[in-house]
Amino acid sequence: MNQDVIFDWGYAFSLLPDLGQALVITIQATVLGMALAVTLGLLLAMGRRAPWAVLSYPVAFVIEFVRSTPLLVQIYFLFYVLPGLGLQLSPLTTGVLALGIHYAAYCAEVYRAGIEGVPRGQLEAARALNLSSWRTATGIVLPQAIPPVVPALGNYLIAMFKDTPLLSAITVVEVLQQSKIIGSATFRYTEPLTLVGVMFLVLSLVAAFGVRQLEGWLQRRGRR
Questions:
Q1: Where's the ABC transmembrane type-1 domain (predicted)?
Q2: CA nearest neighbour of 100 among 1, 8, 11, 28
């Protein structure tokens, strides 16, 4: 390989298999982390809006605490503290847990905004019909609250995808870490880092397109 060449396309293409395997780890961490975030975030949002202070206050504290501390600190905390508590998790599982908990706090606030945007008359009508709290939440509130917040949740999906390189701090070999390993072995960083940048760009655009499609589908469904 000619070291005078700024960008060697042949060398770049030869890196794709290794980077592709690491990209699978990145996508896996993002998908699993986001699944945890949207689920836990909804539970946190409902807990924060609970009429019982013994539940809403601790949930509000947890949300604000997680939002106010860096993700990297949370990753280190879970990776080094959980084993001391007798909970042995793999680095990838720990990373997914950290991503999910961190972004769940942000998703909770998005859900809360969506829920508070539901007209109060809808809740009063549900009470007049003597519907249970569960029926009111699942049949009236959430179907109206979730579609408007899908774009915000999509933004967090893309943000989480771009935060996955932080998992390299706990030995998860995601795509950026793999490019750094390749660069340190060959002393050529231009090709692997450029490919990683392109991968992040393409997948972020694909995710944004998917979120727009989901938003449109929910809007069409809501008009029926």
A1: 19-211
A2: 28
